[in-house]
Structures are given as C-alpha cells and as structure tokens.
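SAMPLE LOG
Freezer: B-3
Tube label: C17
Construct: single chain, 243 aa
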Amino acid sequence: MNLRVPLVYLAGGVGDLVLPSWCVGCDQAIEAPGLMCQACQESLAILPEPRCARCGKPVGKYSQSQRRCDDCKRHTPAFDGAAAPWVYVGLARDLVLKLKFCRAWMVAELAAPWMAGCLDQMPWKAEIDLIQPVPMHWLKRFWRGYNQAEMLALAVSRLAGIPSSSALRKARYTRPQSRLSRSSRLANLSATFRVRPAGSVRGKGVLLVDDVMTTGTTASECARVLKDAGARRVYVLTLARAH
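STRUCTURE (predicted):
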C-alpha cells in the first residue's frame, strides 16, 4: 500500500482545490479535471449483490426468504439497515487509510457522490431526517486534527440535502477496535456514547456515517444509544465494507 500523499492534498481542507492535478488514488499527474484517473476508477471493488438486508454484508447466493446473513441472525445489530459502495480491499482500503491517517481530505469529496448514489438506491432513504457521523473522542480528534467520519457525513449531507447532526458524542476514550474480539469490542464500547442535548433525535430517522464497517459493533452501539434517546430508525452508510 502506498500512503505517500502529495503536498497538494495538504494545502487545505475539502473544497480548497477544485481541480487537483494529482490522482487521489495513485498520486500520478492527471490532465483531465477530476479527482481520480480512469485506471484507478476502474480498479475500485464495488460491493457485490446479494447483500444481507440488515447489515449490508455481501453474502453470495443464499435464500432470499431469509433476508439476513448468519452473523445478523446470531447477533442482531441495533441498526435497521446498512449500505456501502465499496469493498474494503485494494485501492478502496488505501483511500480510507489516506483519509484517516494522511490528511488526504480530497478523498471525502471523491467519496461523497459514491456514498450519496448508494444512499439513493436504498428503500429506506425516505425515512432519514438527520445525518450523524460516528463521533470521535475530543482527545483523539485533537491529536488527529479532524474526524474523517464527520467530513464524509458533511459531504453526503450536502449532496443529499439532508441536515447533519452532532447530537451523538463520544464521552469516553477507548482502545482501537480493529484487533479486539467481538466480546472485547462490546466491553470496550460500554458506556461510551451519549446524546446531547437530550431529545434532539426523538422521533427522527438517523443515518450514521463512517469510513468503514468491519464487524458493525461500533455502528450497532451507536444505534442502540440513539434509539434509547428516542430515534425512530437508525441506518448506516459507510464508504467501504469488509467483505
């Protein structure tokens, strides 16, 4: 994986550069206006069908009458549906990591049309009243300087015409989830999220936005807290999904 980011990406925030001269995927110069060269666009792995109706995970051929994958039947997530345009492999994984760790903010602008287009295909889009990023603890945000989920949420909100929200807060610093077992992930997230002000999501359909979904544990815990605070429905939209 190449995480070298050209200085052009570090020059400012999203929207500072309308016509970058470098492909955000391969870092090579491009002549045509845009954010990504044709070769990189064609190499992105699109999340295949069929997908679990609950968590959005690709499941291959299975009985359509079941409507859920085996994971969701064993541990039903608190959210009501999930979607993502990309599989978290190859270039898609590189782009997520560039956005997360290398300040490649143009990835959010590149990703927004993909995510908004994916959202347009979901039958539950009409139920969404607010778009809420998965929150980051203030200390981690201070170290990193930004929350990549918030950048994606704001970009999708702009394209979809749905208001963004910051009602969900992360009140406790936690260890990274990536190397933890399912039981450890649940314990790690216990009593972590809060909704402030109280009542701000009551009766609302909320779309949680994040960069990537792997097991769905974080999204499920966020959804549980939002529903405990009165949210009517909670759905999840990520840029990429682990296959």
